[in-house]
Amino acid sequence: VQLVESGGGLVQAGGSLRLSCGASGITFSRYVMGWYRQAPGMQRELVATITTAGSTNYVDSVKGRFTISRDNAKNTVYLQMNSLKPEDTAVYYCNARNNLLNYWGQGTQVTVSS
Q1: Contact residues for 41 (Cβ-Cβ < 8 A; gap 6+)
Q2: Which residues pair with 104 in a beta bridge?
Q3: Tens of pLDDT along 80-100?
Q4: For residue range 35-70, what is the model confidence (pLDDT) as tens digits?
Q5: Who's near 69: CB < 8 A, 6+ residues apart?
Q6: Cα distance between residue 78 and residue 89, in whole Å
């Protein structure tokens, strides 16, 4: 199983980034997909999830700014991040889970400068 994130980088406050996570080795459409983030010295926190039916959930701090989506034909989940703030700086991790299994990507760095 592989989850490979891409799209991170350095952006100024107010800017946008789009993260992608390509999955292989799983039946992608049967997994709840999520994005988590971990800032230095902080615990990993949930950012957004999308169910197999397409229902989404967001942490309050990103509501209205971030959008999670999935393309089951491409085995890919996305995180569109707009109006980025310095406090969004973190390593962002892709997650795939079902009732029995839980997989993580290696992470991609997002840095937002003020």
Answers
A1: none
A2: 95
A3: 999 999 999 999 999 999 999
A4: 999 999 999 999 999 999 999 999 999 999 999 999
A5: 50, 77, 78, 80
A6: 17
